[in-house]
Design brief:
alpha/beta, three-stranded mixed β-sheet, flat, 378 residues, 18% strand, six-stranded mixed β-sheet
Length: 378
């Protein structure tokens, strides 16, 4: 499963800087003028997982491959994007392909960084983007309803969505059932996607006034129009700080933190950065799980322990086998399954088996998060 996360926001809010911080390398061009990003930048971001290194060590693997989400940095959105202003059409087409939207909101004052509207107002800025997404969806739905190929349940659902959008409700706030959402899945509605607001603050607020910055973000969430408090999430980030820290060694990070009066270790600080917090939040928002392969495989066949994303819709054992290799799915015999924490607490894979912690499952077994799976095939 490939999970795509779209970074959206007005120009000059720190999207590309945050993208580079999350990617842990300089990929996106970050300049002090609108539309410095034209073509989308994409980077894999690992989902933090304490089990992976432990399982790899137990299996004596030479490689430990984490599960990744794919971050997409797109052009800044401006008023009128729903009508094609700026890079609107290209921007919106890219976002429609994403599974979740991270809406970057500028929450810092810096006279050296221009603002497209001349002043920083987190709530007003967020509302510009939200309104453009809503208007783009409304036009998209109305065009689809005019086509002869729109029939049956799709018409009924889209008419419900159209009415909601006209009333100022994002599609995710209308209360569509899972069956109704499936009926219009191909539309890629922007306002149906989960939204995570990333309030981008300066270094001082992030390091020294995190509590106040968080309270301010909570207040903004309550005041932003078209924001659904029941479905939308948020986090506080400092794109500039995180981008700078990503270029420093562990020792240099601790020296920097000490110079500004922060006594945390580099590891403790890293746990608060969006490189860690955002992928975990995306995982929770989308209801994803993690499963593992590698332990138990004979060394001559593989020396890799790998984490796989488990979609909220579920995944069967033979489907996981197919992701590993077509021949493995074709020759599927059964799956040996053990919980990750049970295996980690054992001395070895064979010890876990001897202790009765392992069970045998068939091809239609629905995988559970944190299952360690060994596919037996012929």
């Amino acid at each position: 499963m490939k999970v795509k996360v779209g970074l959206v926001g007005l120009p000059n809010v720190g999207k590309s800087t945050l993208f580079n911080a999350l990617a842990q390398k300089s990929i996106a061009e970050a300049k002090n003028f609108p539309f410095c990003t034209i073509e989308p930048n994409v980077a894999p971001i690992p989902i933090p997982d304490a089990n992976l290194s432990k399982l790899a060590a137990l299996a004596k693997s030479t490689k430990a491959l984490p599960a990744n989400i794919f971050l997409v940095d797109v052009a800044g959105l401006v008023k009128g994007a729903s009508r094609g202003e700026g890079l609107g059409n290209r921007f919106l087409a890219t976002v429609r392909e994403c599974d979740v939207i991270v809406h970057v909101v500028r929450s810092y004052i810096d006279e050296d960084v221009i603002h497209v509207d001349g002043k920083v107002d987190a709530v007003a800025d967020a509302e510009v983007v939200n309104l453009e997404l809503l208007l783009a969806d409304l036009a998209h739905v109305q065009r689809r309803l005019e086509r002869n190929t729109c029939t049956g349940e799709e018409i009924d659902v889209l008419q419900t969505v159209e009415k909601g959008l006209e009333d100022g409700l994002p599609a995710r706030s209308i209360g569509l059932s899972s069956e109704e959402q499936f009926a219009i899945k191909g539309m890629g509605l922007l306002t149906l996607k989960p939204v995570i607001y990333a309030f981008n603050v300066d270094e001082v607020d992030f390091l020294l006034n995190k509590g106040e910055a968080t309270s301010s973000a909570e207040d903004s969430m309550r005041r932003i129009q078209y924001c659904d408090l029941e479905t939308d999430s948020y986090l506080v980030v400092s794109a500039k700080l995180e981008s700078e820290l990503s270029r420093l060694s562990v020792k240099e990070r601790e020296e920097y933190l000490g110079s500004v009066g922060i006594q945390s270790t580099a590891d403790e600080c890293t746990e608060q950065l969006s490189y860690v917090t955002l992928p975990l939040l995306v995982k929770d928002v989308l209801g994803l799980g993690l499963v593992y392969t590698g332990p138990g495989v004979p060394p001559e066949r593989s020396r890799t322990t790998k984490t796989h994303i488990l979609p909220s819709s579920g995944l069967q054992a033979d489907e996981l086998a197919g992701k590993l290799h077509g021949d493995i799915k074709k020759g599927f015999v059964h799956a040996d399954v053990v919980r990750a924490d049970d295996l980690i607490s054992s001395d070895s894979y064979n010890a876990a088996k001897d202790e009765g912690l392992m069970r045998m499952e068939g091809r239609q077994y629905t995988l559970q998060s944190e299952d360690v799976v060994l596919i037996k095939w012929k």
